[in-house]
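User: Show me a protein chain along with its predicted structure.
Assistant: Here is one chain, sequence first, then structure tokens.
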Amino acid sequence: MADLDGILENKDKDYGIGVPVQRDGGFFLKGLDNCDWGLKDRMSRIFNVKTGRTVMLAFDHGYIMGPTSGLERLDLNIVPLIEYADSLMCTRGSLRSVVPSTSNKAICLRYSAGTSILTELNDECIIDPNDAIRLNASAMAVMVSIGGKYEAKTIENLVRTADAGYKYGIPTMGVTAVGKELARDSRYFATASRICAENGANIVKTYYCEGFEKVVNSCPVPIVIAGGKKLEEFDALDLCYKAINDGASGVDMGRNVFQSEAPIAMIQAVRAVVHEGYTPKMGFELFEELRNK
């Protein structure tokens, strides 16, 4: 077993910040040059080929929270937002019951399920890969709890999902969970993201933090940030801007969109920041303009 001394703490220069990722196959997303055609094709649906980024709309919260605020009626609150997203992160239940089959959006399918917020989170299982195939999923998202009680089980779920994903050409997204006892800092998120990638994840969803460029540079596959708790609109756009500026390949926004005062205006402002290079100020001005129409 490797000696932990000297491994978990690295100097900034070791992260290669500012040095382009070395590639040999020409695919537009890092870490995927040597993957199969089908997996690359699905990644090209999730991420905009021109910008290399994605705006995911997350509304899978109900699988652990039930009808949380803003998600009481998915048909009323989510369906009008779909056209402005590049991809959707949802459960198979909401996908089948609510999402129009004509929407033609990439689906990041919530592929793990288990305990709810009423008990203890992250004690999860994974679903049948054949269902992901039937649903034409573009990715399978699995919760990974690094440092938590269920670390080994969630990593096993990730490994099994990645095995199925490589067999059928479906990317795996590792979603880093954060326990109350764990620090939300760059050391933790870099460790969690790297462990996900090393165990087969093709995308990692994690949280933005101070020193986020270290997290991105030490992870060999694209990182998408989670929106997290509800913020004021300007602050949410600022979060998007900082994450993209520090190297994130996209954002997965849920509550910061569907709990906004003007959700349709907000998701368009997020798109402008992610894909068009808007600053937070420009994005907020666009939000205000669209909200007042």
